[in-house]
Amino acid sequence: MRKFQHWLEPKTPAELEQMAQEARRLTQAHFGKTVRLYAPLYLSNECVNVCQYCGFSREHTIRRLTLTSEQVETEARHLVKEGFRSILLVAGEHPKWISENYLAECLARIRPLAPSLALEVGPMDTDGYRMMVKAGAEALTIYQETYNTKRYAELHPAGPKKDFDWRLECPERAAEAGMRRIGVGALFGLSDWREEALALAAHTEYLLKTCWRTFLTVSLPRIRPAAGDFTPPHPISNREMVHLICALRLAFPQIGIVLSTRESAQFRDALLPLGITHMSAGSNTEPGGYTGINSGEQTTGGAPEKNQPETGEQFHIADERPAAAFAEQLKKLGYDPVWKDWDQGLNAMP
Ligand code: SF4
């Protein structure tokens, strides 16, 4: 950790360039010139939490809906047609609409279509995660949002997400339940980026030791505009993002680093060689948004208020390139887009 702290300290342009070159070398040595592609599939925008930065907060009057498992299959078929074999199922936290049984039903339904299914949903206990693995989940993504406990309490004033420790311990429970891949991360912009990075790195180091059978990925999302017009109190600049990614790669050559479509096309292309291994593409953050099946059963919410979005998206994406165009761009940059790097059949191998 002391080395990571040293790499995080302010650097001259020449020092940062040196870090970038080493980060590039380490990434290619461990992962080659490849990028694993995935797509998020939003199941529901129902949520009982009130995260101050999120468009799905229960305080916002947006159009609320939860897809049926048939509609989830339609969305998944659309993504498979586009080439995706790795799908991240995303939902808010709502015990009634997004129950463990509902999630298991969705997983089982699309398991034959895509070999790599991940979940980004509310925390569960170990038995809940076991149920998800059994139904076909290969991976779990769970961001702590901020590791600053005071900021965390301010930003999550109500709902089950108030419980910082229960969330923090999710990766270990998921690993115990048999998840093959676990993604952690922080939402940059909520508190000082260096302090956040240090805490995220300490968590990563701890998980590498305690969950050594699990492949670990780290995400560094920055806050994007969403319903509620939250203004990030500690915005992180592009240069600081570059610095952060290089420092992470130098400290943890073996982990995956994920970059979503929250970042612009130009910036994503520029960050790619510094250590990125997993990228989403052609994303839509609204339930049913890929195929337009978003007239599913409306549950609560009603008509959007003035200045609220008509749609029920979580946040606005920045890189709007379709998946195929993004894959072509990767090739132009000398990288192999990897659509499939896991098959459930591998679980059965001795
Ligand atoms: S960040 Fe997640 S838990 Fe919080 S309001 Fe949004 S969907 Fe709900």
Structure in words:
The protein has 12 helices and 9 strands. The chain is globular and about 55 Å long. It has an 8-stranded parallel beta barrel. By secondary structure, the chain is of the alpha/beta class. Helix 5 links the parallel strand 3 (116-120) and strand 4 (139-141). The two termini are 36 Å apart. Residues 305-309 have low confidence and may be disordered. Helix 5 (126-135) crosses helix 8 and helix 9 (193-210) packs parallel to helix 10 (238-251). The longest helix is centred in the N-terminal third of the chain and has 19 residues, at 13-31. The structure holds iron/sulfur cluster (SF4). Iron/sulfur cluster (SF4) binds next to loops.
